[in-house]
Design brief:
Elements (H helix, E strand, L loop, with lengths): L24 H4 L3 E2 L12 E2 H14 L7 E13 L6 H7 L3 E2 L7 E6 L4 E6 L3 E7 L2 H18 L5 E16 L7 E2 L1 H7 L4 E2 L8 E3 L7 E4 L4 E5 L4 H16 L2 E2 L2
Antiparallel strand pairs: 1-2, 3-7, 3-8, 4-5, 5-6, 6-7, 8-13, 9-14, 10-11, 11-12, 12-13
Length: about 250
């Protein structure tokens, strides 16, 4: 007969004073964790307590970056009509809070109140949404635009095909006190390849780093505009990486 492995067997300790103690299941199956260091180097298995200690040490050495607030995003969508191209002139006469001047701009402007958003709708069905703060709000506004079309243009079917984010804009305030400021001249001189700074034309410095999803618009006062990301993860991760760079140029008066 083939040997059957009994996975539920119990492990015994040595007998002491004619009694037998069984090792607890928790002790037998003590978990170990494997952590990967930077690069291809890896560390051997570690006990749970050692992993927790390493995490506490790492978190204590990390510098927390100032909070990034996302206050605007630009999204695009696509609306399909059963009649093919959209009749923007007819829409402007039927949809409330809409403006259409063909000689000035090729899209109809539709303003929504809740959430606050401005939608630009083109004849082809392409839609641009501005003013939203989250992706969920962007989708809600796109659905509101489609609902307005359906309610005010009877006999025509409208369908929302897609909604995606093209750009996000956020801001950071370093709250500099005691006469502190950001030395934009030194930043320009040391990283001129990635910086655009013309003080006489515009007081802010534009920093475009390599391999980064975001672009920084930095002012001497400590106000920073973060843009270029297409997701919250891009914005937060990009700012967390660039914060130590900005911090080096904060000077005290």
């Amino acid at each position: 007969m083939p040997y059957k492995f009994n996975s539920a067997r119990r492990i015994k300790k040595k007998k002491t004073n004619a009694t037998v103690d069984y090792v607890s299941q928790e002790e037998v199956t003590r978990k170990r964790k494997y952590i990967a260091l930077s690069g291809n180097a890896s560390k051997g298995d570690m006990l749970l307590e050692e992993v927790d200690a390493l995490r506490r040490e790492k978190s204590s050495t990390d510098t927390e970056s100032p909070v990034l607030y996302i206050h605007n995003l630009v999204g695009t969508g696509m609306v399909k009509s059963s009649n093919g191209l959209l009749d923007l002139k007819c829409m402007s006469s039927l949809i409330p809070n809409s403006v259409f001047h063909k000689q000035k701009f090729a899209a109809i402007t539709i303003r929504l109140e809740s959430p606050t958003c401005t939608a630009l709708l083109f004849t082809s069905g392409k839609m641009v949404l501005t003013g939203c703060k989250t992706y969920i709000e962007c989708i809600a506004c796109a659905l509101q635009v489609v609902a307005l079309l359906r309610n005010n243009m009877r006999g025509t079917k409208f369908q929302l095909c897609s909604v995606c984010i093209q750009n996000m804009v956020g801001n950071v305030d370093l709250n500099l006190t005691g006469g502190a400021s950001i030395n934009l001249h030194r930043m320009q001189s040391e990283h001129g390849l990635y910086c655009t700074y013309q003080k006489k034309m515009f007081p802010g410095l534009i920093y475009r780093p390599d391999n980064s999803p975001i672009v920084l618009l930095i002012f001497t006062s400590g106000k920073i505009v973060v843009t270029g990301g297409k997701s919250v993860c891009d914005m937060q991760a990009g700012w967390h990486v660039l914060w130590p760079f900005v911090q080096r140029y904060v000077t005290q008066k």
